[in-house]
Amino acid sequence: MRRPDPPSLVAGAVIAALGGLLLTERLDAVELSFGLLVPICLATVGVVLLISGLTRRG
Amino acid sequence: MESHDDQNPTTPEPGDPPRVDEQPPITEPPTTAEQPAAATAAPPTTDPARRLFRSREDRAIAGVCGGLAAYFRIDPVIVRIAAVALVFAGGAGLLLYLAAMLLVPAEGTSSAQREGLTGRALTIGGVVALVVATLVLLPGTGSDWWWGGPFVFLAVVALAALGVWRLVVGDAPRGSGAEIVRRLAIGVGVLALCGLLFVAAAWAGAFGGGIVVAAIVIAAGAGLIVGAFTGGARWLIAPALSIALGLAFVSAAGIDAGNGIGEREYRPQRAADVREAYELGAGQLIVDLRNADLPAGDHDLKIDIGMGEAVVLVPRDVCVASRARIGIGAVDVFARHDTGGVDIDWEELPTAPSGTARLVIDADVGLGVLAVAYERDRFANGGSGAFDDDPVRLAEEPGNDACQGSA
User: Fold this and answer.
1) Contact yes or no for A45 and B241 at CB 8 A
2) Model ipTM?
3) Model pTM score
4) Is A43 close to B129, i.e. CB distance below 8 A?
5) Count of CB contacts below 8 A, A vs B?
6) What pLDDT was estimated at residue B113?
7) DSSP code per residue over B22-33
């Protein structure tokens, strides 16, 4: 089996999770604010960059 | 057994003819005065493997400018002047220099080391983003992290610069300067495309398509996961993130274009005409109650605006109590301007003496300002430059004198 690409795998997981969070907000299940969403989005970008960097270094 | 001179060198004796491999190479015809030596040299060819390095010899700080000058074959002073000028252009030069320090390898660095440097830069970028995110999320800083605004902005700008620079030099562009310009154009184009997707997602979310956009984000995430096993899906990361961020912005601001976009002004002339709620998706909402003649007692007023400015003008004999939730923006109640920030929960509930009307404002503002004042255009004659283009200029005077205990 082909070895998975870690950046794509992690980015896909966090983006799908972010999409799920936004979907629940749209369905009025949760209420989102800038104070919560900004760090979540920053963390998403940070995780993607981090895993890309670590993969390259590895 | 055949003997090879190169394997068994022998010492030549004096008088021996020179060996073939010792004979002088065939040279170009001697140059004449009309043919200078430089003209006979091999014509300059495009070096297919020309790379951008940080110069070790011509360096003031980290050799970035010296390396760029060597790459473009220009005077390093020109590059340094341009870099200093860019430092004063919003700090762009500083960010680009730092990015170059991280991403451009030093002269003489091996290919493996260069790959390690790029990985280190991405790792540092990721760690910085996570640290900022953690600081913002720390307990106790929740709604008071406006101080972090500039850091967040800088982090976003740095990440964008990192991305463009990565596209420009991350894969070590070969060839002439045209190649680096081409890659720069690609980087800017990718950023523009991402911006377009951001706006499109925000627009769709504001007009009721949020569920569909969220589903697209989930599908893109799933596509990335599948692509991780099949290969070739990394290109999807930037567009998917752009779409997600666009929808996230609209969700956090609570923008609902179904409530309308533009400027709306309401001037009820009787208390009975005052609505319980005034809503606007994006734009400017003005509720002028100065002629409403509100009777004694409490009057609830709900304001809901996604993005823009909500202005409530009240008569001087009315006590104003206010609650507001602001995503990003400010509360400006009777000329108090110190309430700006992110996720503001504003509450000021003074009581009114008996026989006095009290207006209880309950406002939701996603991105923008809630303003309460007695008058408008009062200080227009003063020529306050900061507000000269503002269609609604409010009286810069404290107020709420009608409330209990007010001075």
Assistant:
1) yes
2) 0.92
3) 0.59
4) yes
5) 202
6) 60
7) GSPPP-PPPP-T
